[in-house]
Write a structure and sequence with these properties.
Layout: H1 2-23, H2 29-55, H3 60-278, H4 283-300
Helix pairs in contact: 2-3
Main location: cytoplasm
Region (Disordered): 275-301
Subcellular location: Cytoplasm, Cytoskeleton, Flagellum axoneme
Length: 301
Amino acid sequence: MAGSSFSDFTGELHQSQKQLSIQERLFTPDNLAKVQKDRQFVSDVINGLMVDLQEKNSFQSLFSAVEEQRKKKAQLLDIINREEEGRLRIKALQKELLDIHKQKTEECVRLEELVAYLRDQVQDIRVRSNRQGKFVNSCAEQLVCQGLKVNSQKEKELEDEVGILQERTEEEKNVHNELETFLKRQHANLQEKLQFWIQRYEKDMEKKEQEITALQNKRNVSQARIQELSKKCRDMQEVIIEDRTEKEHLRAQLEKEQKERDAATKIQAWWRGTLVRKGLGSPKKDKSKSKGGKKGKKKKK
């Protein structure tokens, strides 16, 4: 692979030498500079290759140089393509600019026609305005004359009214001065009354404070008395409650005894009735005695 690359390189080198021999026929400064640059590049590549062969026994420097030249060519082609695209874009923009220029020219023509039309309209308006101005001036002069007459009459009326107002103003000033004097007197009287009432208020407040202090003392005494009476009342309530409890106990006991007596009476009556029904007792004697007693009573009658 290295031999084939070297043969390719030698072939390219021979071709470049042929091209250099052809280009040497052209003695322009640019061609000479390019030839000199290419010779220098070939010389550098050969020197690097010789060093690489002697030291490393490889063609790496040659491959690197060839690859670098390929990259440069690719970059150059990219630049050329970009320039071509730029030229096409410039042509398109120039065409678009021409179209825009054409449109603007047509629009300018249309605007010039519109301006001419508007100038004619302005001229007509000026003529009409002049006519109307003359008419308005004549009307204004008449109105001014009438206004002057009316204003002179109103001015006279206003002067009369001003005189009346001045008289009223003088009267108002006099009334104001008299009212001010009266109010000052009233203010002085009110100040005196205010001082009097302030002093009286202070005296009354001092008196009322003394009364309040006395009432507070009485209130404290009354509260102490009320507390004492409350204590006595509670004691009496306790005594009353105890008395009521005792009376309730006695009443319950009396009711119990009464119930027992009633029960005993009922039992005795039941027992007597039983004896009478069975004839075991002495109720007959009692009956005979009762009958004899009744007869004796009848005889006495």
